Amino acid sequence: MIGIIGAMEEEVASLKEAMEIQEMAEYASMNFCKGTLCGKDVVIVKSGIGKVNAAVCAQVLVDKYEVDILINTGVAGSLDASIDIGDIVISTDAVQHDVDATTFGDPVGQVPNMDVFAFPADQTLVEKAKAANEKVNPEIQTFVGRVASGDQFVADQKVKDRIVNHFGALCTEMEGASIAHAAYLNKVSCVIIRAISDKADNSAQMDYPDFERRAIKQNVRVVKELLTTL
Ligand code: ADE
């Protein structure tokens, strides 16, 4: 079973429209939509925004649906000048940029007592997602690298610079690393696929509504193509 998590209704609506729905269920105030999409057994769900919502959602998918793959789709702010609005970032790993236990000697972003700094994506899923995007969205660039997540919409150059300097991440959003963290704890495969909706700086608020729609369309195409290869 494959779990697909999007934070916002817009992010999951088109995927849900395309799927054959078998069953709806509510857990943790979230609506889980089970069925088939592109010939695969999937559960599609809107988690709500932020790391806690996303982690709770991932755990329900593991416990109630026994998913072995978690795909997180959505939009993100670019952290690199070469990554444009509309481009796609696929995670190699993900870190929580708002974790700070430096007082105890941990680097910024390190969850204390965890044996990893950044939560890894599944290598095969990464490669398949990259190939899928190159096939269905040839007009945009595909980037593969680190995702930095935190409970902040980043729309300030100074905040952006801090995240860039600490983590060398390609994009920032508000759920991916917590889903990767939950996947790591449960030993299930995971990948984050994010379309860039803004530059995570002072222009972010202005860019965001216009580009979100376009970014989501590209995401839906790549997720559907990826499913056909799993
Ligand atoms: N999702 C899309 N853009 C974002 C940003 N700039 N910061 C956090 N999450 C985002």
Put the structure in a nutshell.
This protein has 230 residues and is of the alpha/beta class. The chain is built from six helices and ten strands. Helices cover 38% and strands 30% of the residues.
Set out the fold topology:
Layout: E1 2-6, H1 9-18, E2 20-27, E3 30-37, E4 40-46, H2 51-65, E5 69-78, E6 88-96, E7 119-120, H3 123-136, E8 142-149, H4 157-167, E9 171-173, H5 176-186, E10 189-198, H6 204-229
Parallel strand pairs: 1-4, 1-5, 5-10, 6-8, 8-9
Antiparallel strand pairs: 2-3, 3-4, 5-9, 6-7, 6-10
Helix pairs in contact: 1-6, 2-5, 3-6
This protein binds adenine.
Adenine (ADE) is lined by residues 75-77, 153-155, 172-174, 197-198, 200, 204.
Helix content: 25-40%
Give me the strand/helix succession. Answer: EHEEEHEEEHEHEHEH
Rg calculated over all Cα atoms: 16 Å
Summarize the biggest pleated sheet: 5 strands, mixed, barrel
Bound molecules: adenine
Helix and strand composition category: alpha/beta
Count the helices. How many? 6
- Regions with pLDDT < 50 over 5+ consecutive residues? none
Spatial ordering of strands, largest sheet = 5-9-8-6-10
Q: End-to-end distance, in Å? A: 11 Å
How many runs of DSSP E, i.e. beta strands?
10
Shape: globular
Strand content: 25-35%
Mean of residue pLDDT?
A: 95
Structure explained in plain terms:
With 230 residues, the protein is of the alpha/beta class. The chain is 38% helix and 30% strand. It has a five-stranded mixed β-barrel with strand order 5-9-8-6-10, surrounded by four helices. The longest helix has 26 residues, at 204-229. The radius of gyration is 16 Å and the shape is globular. The protein binds adenine (ADE). Adenine is lined by residues 75-77, 153-155, 172-174, 197-198, 200, 204.
